[in-house]
Design goal:
This protein has about 375 residues and is an alpha/beta fold. About 35% of the residues lie in helices and about 10% in strands.
């Protein structure tokens, strides 16, 4: 892509003007070395990308040994390139988890049985991220997933039996007040949500109004050809006319399934699902083969790859502020960025919608 062709958008109610492509870095420190990460970061910037996304938990799949490594690598790159003022950095504080309690150690809280999102935890997590990133401010600080029970990561049906007692998780008020303190301290410029529901978005907006805290400007939820749940009530709640919260879609390639490289049961060497077969395994169920073949047929008729179709589909959506792409090689990164030079014609979008009607939200585990 010619960097002059990169488009830029303002996120929600903020003044953050970001490239329409956001480079997601969740492989840095595990699938990618620091040297490889630097090469890809340099290339991304040369093509007009000014927006990076990471998290205190990254890389993934998450393990204690590598936790925080993605932020560390970005921090080293920012230091080496001396370009902090030119880059918009988004990172995330982990939500409530019993499986990832080691995250609390990195915050200086010791190893607890449960990591959570109370005010103190958010403040300490932010300080730890600032240190790893070697910066004194974060442009966009996001809550990675909710403190309360919400059906996540392939599940969409609400199970009342899994609700947590309100005493067991941080309140909306507590989380909003923490973000307010961080903004006042100039440690973060704006904040956002991730893996959130319509009800959750509305509760955060109510709490912001109650405490006079600037509202969230983004929401980072799963969105792809195989998972379009966002288009329902969430799109209304986040519309510029309402909450004015931009979507930053993650997993737009459905864990790599929408590259087409796994079609027919193939297991390419060094591919993520080959290396980590239990990670995001919801995308690798046999029943996804039919919709994948249908989307691949549309891509071939258009003369592009399935990867390009998946990216260009996101480019066509009004509610997306910036699309998070990932890559483990320079070759992948080039194809993913170049995909944003493609504008899908109405006929192709109609064909995509027809497949979606036949196989709605195919990656959902529960309907």
């Amino acid at each position: 892509m010619d960097p002059k062709k990169m488009e830029y958008k303002v996120l929600g109610s903020s003044d953050l003007k970001v490239s329409e492509v956001c480079f997601g870095t969740m492989t840095f420190g595990q699938q990618n070395s620091q040297e490889e990460a630097f090469e890809m970061l340099d290339y991304a910037v040369s093509k007009g990308i000014n927006f990076l996304d990471t998290a205190e938990m990254y890389p993934v799949p998450p393990i204690e040994k590598t936790q925080g490594a993605s932020e560390v690598i970005i921090g080293e790159w920012l230091k080496a390139r001396k370009n902090r003022k030119d880059i918009i950095i988004a990172t995330k504080v982990s939500g409530r988890s019993e499986a990832k309690s080691y995250v609390t150690k990195s915050r200086g809280q010791g190893e607890r049985k449960v990591s959570t999102l109370d005010k103190k935890s958010i403040l300490l997590a932010c300080d730890a991220s600032l240190k790893r990133l070697q910066t004194d401010y974060i442009d966009l600080y996001q809550i990675h997933w909710p403190a309360r029970y919400v059906p996540l990561f392939g599940k969409s049906l609400y199970d009342k039996g899994k609700e947590r007692d309100k005493k067991e998780y941080a309140s909306f008020d507590d989380q909003v007040q923490a973000m307010g303190e961080l903004i006042k301290a100039k440690k973060i410029r704006y904040w956002g949500l991730s893996n959130e529901s319509t009800w959750g978005v509305c509760q955060f907006l109510f709490a912001c109004k109650k405490y006079g805290v600037p509202p969230p400007v983004t929401i980072q939820n799963s969105y792809s050809l195989l998972h379009r749940n966002f288009e329902y009530e969430l799109a209304e709640a986040c519309s510029p006319s309402n909450g004015n919260i931009s979507l930053l879609p993650w997993s737009i390639l459905a864990g790599g399934r929408l590259t087409g490289k796994y079609i027919g049961g193939k297991k390419p060497a060094k591919a993520r699902n080959t290396l980590f077969p239990n990670f995001q395994d919801r995308y690798f169920r046999p029943e996804l083969e039919e919709p994948l073949l249908a989307y691949e047929k549309i891509a071939k008729e258009l003369g592009v790859s399935l990867t390009v179709l998946a990216h260009a589909f996101c480019k066509s959506k009004w509610f997306i502020g910036s699309t998070i792409i990932g890559a483990t090689s320079l070759k992948q990164l080039k194809e993913n960025i170049d995909a944003f030079t493609v504008t899908l014609p109405k006929l192709t979008l109609d064909e995509i919608n027809e497949v979606h009607r036949k196989y709605p939200n195919a990656s959902n585990l529960d309907g």
